[in-house]
Amino acid sequence: MGLLLDTCVFLWLIALPERLPPAVRDRLGRGGTDAAVSTASLWEILIKHGKGQIGLETGEDSALRFLVRQCEAHRLDLLPISPPTLEALERLPAVHHDPFDRLLVCQAIERGLTLVTPDPLIRRYPIKTFW
């Protein structure tokens, strides 16, 4: 099962792994687990970091480079946003109004991924979730 991490799950994985349920930590810690982070999540984090809402210990790296390195360190693929990603957007019910979460749902639909998320609203979409 391919996994797509919700933005908060990615942040917890890299900074506060104890916030993740043991099943999620175990699944992500296994070798060979196919897991990804959306470019939309990096975009969301960079916006919030720029506003001072999220602190990142980036060392000498830019915030973006730090996030990309974290994807590499955790063996997470980075998913691009392309026109086919957006095809499901017009058909999504108005369950969630967060544009980043709606984009993650579209990527899960497009690629047949399971979205790892604690968000109960996302579970109302026609996708597989794991938490």
Please provide a written account of the structure:
The protein has 131 residues and is of the alpha/beta class. The chain has one domain: 3-Layer(aba) Sandwich (Rossmann fold). It is built from 6 helices and 5 strands; from the N terminus they run βααβααβααββ. It has helices at residues 7-15, 22-29, 39-50, 63-73, 83-86, 99-111, and strands at residues 3-5, 35-38, 77-79, 114-116, 128-130. A 5-stranded parallel beta sheet has the order 3-2-1-4-5, sandwiched between helices. The protein is globular. The model has no long low-confidence stretch (mean pLDDT 94).
Strand content is 5-15%
According to CATH, the homologous superfamily is 5'-nuclease
Mean pLDDT: 94
Gross morphology is globular
Instruction: List low-pLDDT spans.
Output: none
Number of helices: 6
Please outline the helices and strands.
Layout: E1 3-5, H1 7-15, H2 22-29, E2 35-38, H3 39-50, H4 63-73, E3 77-79, H5 83-86, H6 99-111, E4 114-116, E5 128-130
Parallel strand pairs: 1-2, 1-4, 2-3, 4-5
